């Protein structure tokens, strides 16, 4: 997960939500509630362990993938509420939708 900041003060900061590897805190020092931070960690952990994109980018159970996508959408909405209008939160995880086209990384 990351943020993109633009130097133009008339534009909003953008936070792009996507899963990633590594043990670090997903949003670093971004001011969000502990409960939302825990949900983000759990969401990312599911991506790392259930989808396990190192082996193959395909959910072993499509319903688990659908729930993961739905949770990601909920996280986007809740992040938007907690961060307020000065930040625009967008999703970057749709590529992992079990009902979508498989991602092509070449």
UniProtKB/TrEMBL annotation:
This is Uncharacterized protein. It comes from Herbiconiux ginsengi.
């Amino acid at each position: 997960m990351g943020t993109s900041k633009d130097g133009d003060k008339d534009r909003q900061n953008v936070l792009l939500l996507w899963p990633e590897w590594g043990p670090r805190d997903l949003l670093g020092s971004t001011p969000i509630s502990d409960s939302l931070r825990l949900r983000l960690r759990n969401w990312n952990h599911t991506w790392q362990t259930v989808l396990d994109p190192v082996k193959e980018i395909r959910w072993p159970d499509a319903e688990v993938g659908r729930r993961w996508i739905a949770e990601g959408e909920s996280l986007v909405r809740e992040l938007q509420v907690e961060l307020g209008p000065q930040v625009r939160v967008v999703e970057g995880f749709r590529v992992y939708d079990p009902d979508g086209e498989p991602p092509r990384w070449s």
